[in-house]
Q: What sequence folds into this?
């Protein structure tokens, strides 16, 4: 076992890795990359038919840390969904594993996030959600909680955009939420998402160890006289351990963040009916009210046709059609010209 | 009311020596959304079938119904197909613009307008109140004629049908072929007899009424001409042509967002695709997606281009602005994609339903940082068709965005244009390695890198996602990268990559369509222009020659500039660059790129929403020549 | 009464009008303009403190047809909310009446729509919702119903974006829906919206008489051999009467469209609790399922602070602050420079 | 391990004649996020306080923690403040780049690195394994020293503290003032004694260790200098300066979206606003909004500018691309707004943490259609402060967008820069009519029109929403409009309006800051440059003069071009235009606008992410001069 274990394709887990992470040690995003590696390895997925799609952000860098044999596309900020749409339409055999951030999908990219869901493009849409802009140094994103404080961004007075509620509003066919430190749940949800035919929205709370720490926290080491200076100076960033957690369905679990603050995770139990859109909304709304984070598969609707179907794509991927099938014969041009007004 | 004053001849008009045959213009003034386009298209089609060189320019408002619209049709026995802003014959169907329309008529011109005061369109004044006594006037009893239709038309379409009355009256007055009108209506209604009969019936009735009640007094007439157009010459619009061209270019993916005047490009592509590219089982050999906006439209096309599909989007100015960031990514990550810009008047929302060439410089350098793109400049629907397919070859061959800069005039007006030719080359899919080719490449070169130039032409080899080979994958990004697509912030790597892309553009420069030279013996000046200005330039050169100013004319078909442009300018002290924009953007580009010749270039540019006309251009050049 | 009636400001209703409409006769948008005129006249609103904001579209042209004494801003397509945000922050005494379309707010502008709601900018946000792009000739917008057919745009296979659900998801503080032909309800809702302190989303179903007609409809007159040609040729557009309707709260009302098709309006009754977010969602979701259009004030939360408060604006509008208050004194510059590292 | 081989002298190095004083460079190689910036800033501040002309260039990665970072500090007794890519002294704290860093040292250079192999940063090899025998080597027992701290530091900050060790060792080796270091630390820690003591304690310990264990062998030393800087000279970054300038410009509204390297501009504005612009009751005399993206950021700023506020946004390349459509609207609807572009390397995402001047042409012509904007080009933090306030005057005076094109080098690096001057003019709010002024205007002119030019300077009068006057309202739009802001599709109206805006830009041209001329007796060539290149140009001119190439230098401060630019070029056969971009964009602009002089301009441009340096520029010009 261990190092030498191979999957159905005869590949080792090592073969599903890629470059070493350049994210901060302890960043939740790294745990998620690991889960992607585990799941794709275990499911013996063919990397050459996976595309790794992302926008811009720490989270969006993640595809550089897994599945080295898959093509990847690091698009512009917030607009990965459109690029993925084009790619999957061009070649329907491609399985898109997309990674985005909360800023990427909740701020600049909210429109594309909603519209790709509406089209039900087959893709796994992972959001590595930390409530801040990691890569630009800690400003609040739209998913930051109202009342949240950080030493870099101050105090957030606006309500959070809940990306699961947003997905639901946009008629998503698969909506799930998890926590980066919950390896087991993340893996289970990723497997379900990979099995889903349509847009599978997986919102994973993934703490930013660097910019989510509180000014008031006793654990943080502060020196500059103002935060701007620290930022300009690319301050000192502590290395941290990744947070890990495991707990049972139906239960709630408080988890301590690196800065000493707590969040409460609540795992959906068997009583939750993930096919009921109204109760999915209720569950999310109530968690918001109670300042809990509800995790699990929140909503699922396997029946709605995907964009592959509504676009009437043939079985053969468009890119594999031969020239004869995409350039009509000279006689067809004659026919078309006959339909025009000619001398 | 009693039908009095059905017509009037001018008391003080310039003398014409008998008839003016096929050498004058009509303008029909209506409100949009009233259906006059059917009548106008019928007229232009008929004139075309009579062998008369004719153009049609539709000046329509950015509105759906009720605002002023003018349709200009110019007949030119000499074959000039450029817009002419003056019209000798006015069909005044719009009360709101009546006074201004009448005022614009040249002395000796002809005014035709509806007489019935029960009709909303009928000016509420008598012929006596029209101040101008230097024009011919004919009046038509529109409502009266419609009331005589054998079957009462649905009241909702009376307004539409009224337009058929002027077709009949004009046919009589100007000798327009009635059989041709029937044929044109039959084409328009797709052979549906009931509709053809209803419409043609009214045309015929109006013709007969005119023949009985009006006396031809003005000098303007149409006469059939022989041998003017080769068989198969088309009368069509550039957007249909471009859409059809894309279909024959093997387009696989279209993403777009509606915007005038480009919408009909994507819509015609979609329509033709639906006709010619659907499999027997109903599945499509393409995908067309109406995106949520232009940012998404270009993103989708780039994604598809990356995955190996022939992908395009179409838009106009505001969309081009919104696409800037993504186009910069495609340039730098070297992804093929075709972008049509059917130009309208900017800045900003500007005049959405008027024509211009105002996006040239912006499209050419679209995106922050140092970027440049291939820009193709079709002159008419035929070239829209050709670039419609050829653009994909360039995009895939050079792995870069290709702009096709059409404009509202080409795109939405009907033009007499050469028959489209089937592509004369197989598709050029560029340097794409499939699994087998990749293995061979690696065998030969020891390794493969997405941005590694082994041929010295600046163009690297790419693989497509889904390629079944363990070494095929690479990471596409807009950030600095080395030959092997690895992220790099290294100064040398960065510079080397940009230098290689610059080398690629040297290859591009040599491969794009050469400019077209039109020479004249003893030419003393050069004229450079492009796109839809072409007919106006041809006409201008005749006018200039008549004033003893002989000119050679170079029509640029693409950016970056071909070497011929330099050679051409070198031959003249003064080269006039004629363009339909405010700043003289092609002049600016040539000055930027050929500084040693910059001083020879003279701007002849204007922007007012109308196609350029030969009189204005001639005037500018004559004035400048006098001053020089 | 009638022509000479004046309001508290001594103005007649005529004074609240502007240019004649250039929209199609019978367009629902015209009815809405009339209701805005009525309400602002009746409420004696001071036009010089109203700003009329819009994007691009037939709907967005509406501000040219009412309140001739108010400044207006016809922005770029889909991005009116950001312009309004800047204007209201600059001068908090301005009352923004904004008009947008479903394409403008549901497609290109979805991101700005959501984010302005999240910020709770004080403004009345009217969407004149017809499910199509009127101005560009009849393509489907994101609010078009799944299965909808029109002769111009064909068949819509995607689910509708419900802008009220979207508003709710974005934590809107006022969400209402009405029908353009229901003058009484539109007026009542506009009055409530004008009284609301925060973003008041008013989604008004407003039929496009021109491009919503069915190919199959017996009432429509078709001639071209293909719709593209008609479009290029700016075809013939029939004049129609505006649709008017009146019905009681708690009841449902089928309304026939110009093309002969029917929609069913359902007015919320007294039993609906507009402060309950979950039930607001349920009501909208169920109406969607039943293909009904629920009308009335769907949700309201008067407690959330507006952007004027979260931005800590002073009572005096920013634009009225004198130079002395916005350019600190020379001594302050000295102080700032003292804080810098100097020789 | 035993501490052996603490140092080594080169066996084969070039001879230096004794000491090299204040005329060499340091480079500190670390990983980012490890806190070395505190040490580096402490060093540069101390050197500055010693009166030594010094610059600091931070080459940092686009990443938060762990990737290679280099901090260059150049000391120049001659006062040259430009970047110099060579460093004689290397502090090698990053194992990953150790080999490449050492390889870059010039012969006779100095290598300093940590010795403890328990430390993650410590190279795992012995001094013997370093192949180069032409350099000086000193090694520091970093961990050992930290272990000797009286109070054991929190383990989490050991990594950070390690950086203080090199400060101490350098202080000893190069004679850096220890009191100065204490002062710099005290400034950095805002006077917090505990932190100062902890950090300075370690510096002192390291100094002492070095004094005891190392023997100064290399020739490089720092010496205090007198009279180099006037009192009050600042060491600061351009983004802070720009933010502060905006505060003194009376900024009322800031909307922005985070992006490197511009974020700290908005953040510093917000911070200063919070300090200096809050009323006693806690209310703000401003509003700062972090928008959802750049499309919204510019939209908000335009809305605020329209309503009469002094409004700005700040971004970098990708944001500029996204703002294109809205900026075109502001241009055409004539709305004041200030846009900072702190430039980084494009195309596309490019090198987000490296500097360039690559957006010049794009910003100048941003937006589809024919557009042009005012562009201000600050050279250093002092000019960032000045343009920070003055930009609002231009925007409001000319009712148009104003770009301030800074760059990463100016914006994020610390520069020795003149003390900021309080605005020398009251605010120019431009032609705004309040209710009273509007009445007077109407009395005088009979009427008022938003786009009606009564003064002949192309600048019309505007009213603000909320103006209590029945005639104040107007309709703002990006579509065609007449003098009275009424919608119009009329060709003449459209042309007249664009012509009037062009006239406005003639007024602009005369009003913007004139370029700055630096002359030299007997100059045979001209040099044109702008922005952050300034120190490199000054240095280049000395080097050129030493080779008998005398030059005059014109620094352009704004676009559109001032008349002085033409006059300057006219004086020389060859004018070198030096820029930090790939295409030579300023050259292109000048060629476009001054075609008769186009051929005189020679491009000296490059783009690799680094600030330009005098050696490279000199080499280019010398080579070109030889060829000419
Ligand atoms: C158009 C554009 N604007 C701004 C940026 C700068 N930027 C890079 S990443 C980022 C935010 C990333 O936040 P998020 O998506 O939450 O990812 P995280 O870093 O938190 O994982 C921003 C604003 C950019 N790259 N492009
Ligand atoms: C950036 C941009 N893209 C496209 C357009 C073209 N356009 C004008 S209006 C419109 C759609 C309007 O639809 P909607 O908002 O629903 O308004 P309606 O006309 O239906 O009232 C579009 C796509 C534009 N003006 N700007
Ligand atoms: S800054 Fe935050 S989000 Fe980015 S890598 Fe570090 S911990 Fe992760
Ligand atoms: S096209 Fe439709 S939305 Fe536009 S004005 Fe006409 S009816 Fe109204
Ligand atoms: Mg984030
Ligand atoms: Mg609509």
A:
């Amino acid at each position: 076992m261990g190092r030498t274990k191979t999957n159905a394709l005869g590949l080792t887990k090592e073969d599903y890795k890629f470059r070493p992470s350049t994210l901060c040690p302890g960043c939740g995003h790294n745990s998620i990359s690991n889960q992607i590696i585990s799941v794709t390895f275990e499911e013996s997925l063919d990397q050459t038919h996976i595309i790794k799609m992302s926008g811009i952000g720490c989270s969006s860098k993640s595809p550089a840390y897994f599945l080295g044999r898959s093509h990847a596309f690091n698009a512009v900020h917030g607009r990965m969904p459109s690029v993925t749409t084009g790619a999957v339409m061009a070649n329907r055999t491609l399985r898109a594993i997309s990674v985005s951030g909360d800023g990427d999908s909740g701020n600049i990219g909210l429109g594309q996030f909603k519209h790709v869901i509406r089209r039900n493009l087959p893709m796994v849409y992972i959001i590595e959600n930390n409530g801040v802009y990691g890569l630009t140094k800690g400003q609040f994103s739209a998913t930051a909680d109202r009342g949240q404080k950080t030493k870099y961004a101050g105090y957030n007075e606006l309500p959070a955009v809940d990306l699961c509620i947003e997905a639901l509003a946009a008629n998503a066919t698969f909506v799930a939420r998890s926590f980066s430190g919950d390896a087991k749940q993340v893996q289970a949800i990723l497997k379900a998402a990979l099995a889903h035919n349509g847009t599978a929205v997986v919102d994973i709370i993934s703490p930013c160890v660097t910019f989510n720490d509180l000014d008031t926290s006793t654990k943080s080491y502060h020196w500059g006289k103002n935060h701007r200076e620290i930022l300009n100076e690319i301050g000192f960033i502590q290395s941290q351990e990744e947070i890990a957690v495991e707990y049972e369905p139906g239960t709630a679990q408080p988890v301590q963040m690196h800065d000493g603050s707590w969040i409460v995770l609540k795992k959906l139990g068997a009583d939750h009916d993930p096919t009921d859109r109204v109760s999915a909304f209720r569950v999310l709304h109530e968690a918001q009210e109670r300042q809990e984070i509800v995790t699990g598969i929140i909503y699922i609707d396997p029946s709605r046709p995907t964009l592959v179907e509504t676009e009437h794509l043939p079985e053969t991927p468009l890119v594999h059609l031969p020239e004869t099938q995409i350039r009509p014969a000279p006689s067809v041009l004659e026919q078309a010209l006959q339909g025009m007004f000619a001398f | 009311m009693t039908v009095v004053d059905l017509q009037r001849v001018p008391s003080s008009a310039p003398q014409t020596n008998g008839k003016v045959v096929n050498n004058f213009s009509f303008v029909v003034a209506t409100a949009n959304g009233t259906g006059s386009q059917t009548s106008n298209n019928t007229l232009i089609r008929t004139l075309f079938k009579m062998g008369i060189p004719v153009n049609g320019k539709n000046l329509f408002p950015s509105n759906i119904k009720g605002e002023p619209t003018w349709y200009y049709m110019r007949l030119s026995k000499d074959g000039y197909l450029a817009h002419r802003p003056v019209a000798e014959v006015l069909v005044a169907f719009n009360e709101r613009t009546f006074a201004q329309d009448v005022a614009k008529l040249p002395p000796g011109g002809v005014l035709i307008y509806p007489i019935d005061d029960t009709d909303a369109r009928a000016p509420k004044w008598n012929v006596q109140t029209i101040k101008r006594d230097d024009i011919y006037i004919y009046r038509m009893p529109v409502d009266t004629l419609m009331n005589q239709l054998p079957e009462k038309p649905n009241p909702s379409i009376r307004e539409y049908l009224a337009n058929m009355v002027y077709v009949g009256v004009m046919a009589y007055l100007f000798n327009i072929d009635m059989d041709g009108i029937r044929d044109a209506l039959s084409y328009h209604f797709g052979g549906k007899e009931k509709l053809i009969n209803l419409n043609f019936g009214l045309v015929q009735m109006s013709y007969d009424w005119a023949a009985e009640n009006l006396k031809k007094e003005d000098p303007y007439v149409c006469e059939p001409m022989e041998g003017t157009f080769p068989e198969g010459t088309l009368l069509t619009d550039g957007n249909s042509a471009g859409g059809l061209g894309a279909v024959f270019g093997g387009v696989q993916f279209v993403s777009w967002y509606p915007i005038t005047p480009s919408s009909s490009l994507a819509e015609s592509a979609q329509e033709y695709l639906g006709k010619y590219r659907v499999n027997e089982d109903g599945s499509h050999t393409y995908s067309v997606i109406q995106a949520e906006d232009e940012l998404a439209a270009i993103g989708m096309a780039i994604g598809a281009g990356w995955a190996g599909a022939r992908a395009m989007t179409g838009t106009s100015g505001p969309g081009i602005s919104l696409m800037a960031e993504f186009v910069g990514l495609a340039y730098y990550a070297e992804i093929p994609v075709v972008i049509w810009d059917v130009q309208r008047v900017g800045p900003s929302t500007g005049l959405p339903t008027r024509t211009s060439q105002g996006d040239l410089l912006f499209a050419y350098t679209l995106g922050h940082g140092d970027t440049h793109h291939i820009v193709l400049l079709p002159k008419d629907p035929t070239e829209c068709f050709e670039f419609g397919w050829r653009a994909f070859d360039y995009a895939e061959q050079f792995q870069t965005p290709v702009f096709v800069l059409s404009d509202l005039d080409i795109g939405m007006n009907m033009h007499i244009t050469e028959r489209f030719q089937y592509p004369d080359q197989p598709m050029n899919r560029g340097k794409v390695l499939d699994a087998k080719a990749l293995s061979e490449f690696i065998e030969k070169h020891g390794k493969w890198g997405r941005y590694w130039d082994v041929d010295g032409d600046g163009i690297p080899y790419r693989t497509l996602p889904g390629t079944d080979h363990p070494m095929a994958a690479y990471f596409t990004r807009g950030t600095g990268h080395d030959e092997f697509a690895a992220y790099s912030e290294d100064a040398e790597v960065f510079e080397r990559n940009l230098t290689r892309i610059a080398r690629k553009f040297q290859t591009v420069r040599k491969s794009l369509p050469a400019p077209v030279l039109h020479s004249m013996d003893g030419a003393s000046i050069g004229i450079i222009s492009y796109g839809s200005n072409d007919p106006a330039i041809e006409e201008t050169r005749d006018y200039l020659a008549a004033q003893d100013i002989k000119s050679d004319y170079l029509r640029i078909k693409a950016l970056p500039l071909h070497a011929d442009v330099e050679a051409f300018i070198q031959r003249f002290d003064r080269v006039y660059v004629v363009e339909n924009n405010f700043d003289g953007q092609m002049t600016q580009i040539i000055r930027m790129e050929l500084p040693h010749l910059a001083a020879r270039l003279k701007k002849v540019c204007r922007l007012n929403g109308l196609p350029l006309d030969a009189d204005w251009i001639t005037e500018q050049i004559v004035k400048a020549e006098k001053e020089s």
About this structure: The longest strand of chain B covers residues 23-31.
